[in-house]
Amino acid sequence: MEWLERTELLIGEEKVKKLNGAHVLVAGLGGVGSWCAEMLARAGVGEMTIIDGDVVQPSNRNRQLPALEHTEGHTKTSIMVDRLKAINPEIVLHAFDHFHTGEDFRALLQKPVDYVVDAIDSLSPKVFLILAAMENNRPLISSMGAGGKMNPEKIEIVDISKSYHCNLARMVRKRLTKFDIKKGFDVVFSPEPVHKSAIVQTEGERNKKTTVGTISYMPAIFGMMAASKVIRELVK
Q1: Which of 16, 66, 90, 185 is the most exposed place for a label (fewest CB within 10 A)?
Q2: For the chain, which residues make up each domain, given as ranges?
Q3: pLDDT of residue 90
Q4: Domain 2-235, CATH
């Protein structure tokens, strides 16, 4: 494919073929997942399952790829389907525009998937997805909290057991301990402290008790680092 000639120049024809034959699931198409999905598509990943039950809100515009003034009220999945198809018309897409439960994730991950990206920002569905991926032995990378962070030089990719100074990672570890899971999958995280002034209590939002301030580039970098890990593992 001519549009992948620069990628082929870097990694070679055989690795481009590996990416084209791979199927990656990305759950969550917000500030992290949308950028991750696009980077995977631009690298030539040939099949993707994308999941997000939300629509674009005005507050998404400071950081989320699907969020523009004229896309407000549209589902994030529909916008990303159009965008990914515009990048690669031959990509195979499976799009789900509803919130998933544990059973939904279990059913999805019983089907062949080469990698799972967890970009969900709500705790319960996040843990459901991680559990389903581990139960089905699917390679997984999970994004921890990008909110409240400013310094991209602090971002790391480590096993979940080695994450620290991240409130979301702490809560995920605590939940997973109940299932006797303490390690075994990668996370993108930053130990940069979050100032209290960047956090407000939230009422009425699905699965959220707080809202954390964000800057444009941090969620995108989290998503791109997750994509880089997936791509590098797929072409090994």
Answers
A1: 90
A2: 2-235
A3: 98
A4: 3.40.50.720
